[in-house]
Amino acid sequence: MGGSRAQFNKPHKSRFSSKSSRNLHKTSLKDKHRIAKSERNLAKGARAARNQRNKMLRDQKRAAVLKEKRALSSSTSPPRVMVLFGLSASADVHSLADDLLKLLSPDRSNGAEPPTVASPDYKLRITVLKAPHGDLPSCVEMAKVADLIAFVASADSSCDEGAFDYIDSFGSQCLSVFRSLGFPSTVVFIRDLPTELRRRNDSKKICTSSLAGEFPEDCKFYPADTKDELHKFLWLLKEQRLTMPHWRNRCPYLMSQKVDMLVDDQSSGRCTLLLTGYLRVHSLSVNQLVHIAGAGDYQLKKIEILNDPCPLNAKKKTDAMELDDVLDVQVIRSVHPDPSTQEPLVVENVPDPLAGEQTWPTEAEMAEADKTQKEKQLKQRKLPRGTSAYQAAWILDNTDDEGSASDSETGDGMVLDETEVIPGQEGAKGSDFDDDQASLSFKDVDEETENDSVMMEGENLTREQIEDDIKKIKEAHAEDEEFPDEVDTPLDVPARKRFAKYRGLKSFRTSSWDPKESLPPDYARIFAFDNFAKTQKHVERALTMEQEDRDDCISAGQYARLHINEVPTLVASKLCALAETIPVIASGLLQHESKMSVLHFSIKKHEMYDSPIKAKEELVFHVGFRQFVARPIFSTDNISSDKHKMERFLHAGRFSIASIYAPICFPPLPLIVLKSVEGAATAVAAVGALRSVDPDRIILKKIILTGYPQRVSKLKASVRYMFHNPEDVRWFKPVEVWTKCGRRGRVKEPVGTHGMVSSGWTP
């Protein structure tokens, strides 16, 4: 029933209704609309502000993308670098490069011409590089500067069983390296397709489905057998927005197209290296330091801005030889450094030996120090030679009454107990241990540890000796993986001598350890930061400042010649010879990046590398544009502790931390570790990324001495083969013992004369 006869129930009365709700029936209809409108306007205003802000962000991103596309297609942008990489040995990269260059420049001959061409028809400037198949270091260097990697697959590639195999072992290895470096824009060219249309489409589908999982999702597949197919690709490339890894956008770099050297003085052994090419990403200051890949860090003598040899809109065509002659002498502008603002080439810190000195002590303080010294002389402890005061504090005093009584009666000279020195009997007490202590030498211990970590080099070894060394390393790697940290006590050397540098810790996680303890004086030559994250933020903020209007800078996209000062003549001659096969890269350094420190990398062994990787083994590190040789130390990554356990080998299937001395770099940066073996091809040993720069990271070498229980009771056990003489048992008495099941206890006393241990368990 409708209308006025509709049923209307009386609303529930509320005892706690507000005054406004009780008086709402007295408000006119006009006022009700006015009150509700203010609330709606408030919500509508906030939503409008959000929409306006989102629209502004969209417009800014759209403008940035449009600016980037216009810059890439303009005449001021540097040529795009396209690297042709064959996925297998059967893929012909050279013929594809010739077809692309002829299509871009029809007047080009097949002579030894530069690989950079400009095409007014396509409105595109491009540099085509051919990655040599089988040369891993060259492929890595080309991938660092590639704007576009074009993978070339041959449709005729197949295995003996009939299954298609478009990627060989070297191609798979390089693909994993490219993934670690970060893929730029990628395409796949499919060559050698059948001429019949149906078979051609089927072969293309099979190749695409087989390779789609190896590349990014936005990777496109193009047939590249005919001129029309390459023409279609170039038209699409002109409008494509290329992406590159983030780490390449942080600093300016120059890919050389011409490398020369000027020798000013033959006797000095130094020369000026000339690198000519297009500057990319950011502007470069002449006061800035530069890094030459594989050569080191240097200062700039000057920068010359030259005429562009490949203009996109050439007003008149000139012969190539005449153009080269003109460009060699014609310089638009030269930029010279300012000695007052040029960044110095500082590699090591110069420590001040008086930096820790305090004010001269007063007479009262000197008298008190003399009194304390006399008291210490009356009561002294026998310690191993070379033990510092901080290390002596870790050697516990004997607080067990029973043990102290028995020890004082036997007079075995235990070095952990404080004993009073009685005049006249000083030579009689502990004479046996004094003879052993006189033979204690940390040099012998250092030689043993170094021989365990570093392979023999510089010796003429026979083939049988080399095979024996490899067999021993593999056996040690398998033993370390199965029984980590477990060490057998030597029979010919006392354990208190062999493990004199080690310290017993009750808890590896919670026990305190001073990171500045017993550091060598040379350790003060490396640099450390109070707050590394804050320093990195400050350096990156300074990088984002515009440098276009500064007189000491050249802008990105200009064709320039860098005069690099004080380069060794031998290094410069090698770079000139190397430039014929791969491009030489010069990258601008950020602040502090030439200084030495301790770098830590998160590293993982490559799945295709089967040989064991030992700590302190010589490896080639590729960190961003940098390349250097180092001997890393591997350690675990403990999140809940400030101490990290050293690892003798880099084990497969898990991440470790590799620590090296190297120039400072700011993360994130990719890491590629190569291992070069004499007589064999260079292989990828590990991949990873830069984790941190921290000289105070504590890395400890941990060992576990094991024994076998002979007699076990409820609260006691007799353990054999952990030590071989009673003196070693007394030396390690303060150290806690434990079983693999988790039961813990203490060393009570030696049993017999062969080093058997009597242990007491904690109930």
Polypeptide structure, described:
The chain is α+β, with helices and mostly antiparallel strands and 763 residues long. Among the domains are: 73-244, Rossmann fold (3-Layer(aba) Sandwich), CATH 3.40.50.300; 253-311 and 330-348 and 537-588, Elongation Factor Tu (Ef-tu), domain 3; 465-524 and 595-701, Translation factors (Elongation Factor Tu (Ef-tu), domain 3, Beta Barrel), CATH 2.40.30; 707-761, no CATH class. Helix content is 30%, strand content 25%. The protein has 18 helices and 34 strands. A hairpin with a 7-residue loop joins strand 23 (633-635) and strand 24. Helix 4 packs parallel to helix 5. Residues 316-327 and 398-459 have low confidence and may be disordered. InterPro entries: AARP2CN, Bms1/Tsr1, BMS1_TSR1_C, G_Bms1/Tsr1_dom. GO terms for molecular function: GTP binding; GTPase activity; U3 snoRNA binding. Pfam families: AARP2CN, RIBIOP_C. Residues 1-61, 335-357 are annotated as: Disordered.
Q: What is the count of β-strands?
A: 34
Summarize model confidence as the mean pLDDT: 79
Distance between the termini: 87 Å
Could you estimate the helical fraction of the residues in percent?
Answer: 25-40%
- Write down the overall geometry: globular
CATH topology of the domain at 73-244: Rossmann fold
Largest sheet, spatial ordering of strands: 22-21-26-27-20-25-23-24-28
- Rg (C-alpha, Å): 37 Å
In DSSP terms (H or I, runs of 4 or more residues), the helix count works out at 18
Q: Runs with pLDDT <50, length 5+? A: 316-327, 398-459
Strand content: 15-25%
Query: Structural class, judged by helices and strands?
Result: alpha+beta
Instruction: Please describe the biggest sheet, giving its number of strands, its sense, and whether it closes into a barrel.
Output: 9 strands, mixed
Organism: Rhizophora mucronata
Main location: nucleus
Protein name: Bms1-type G domain-containing protein
GO molecular function, one term: GTPase activity
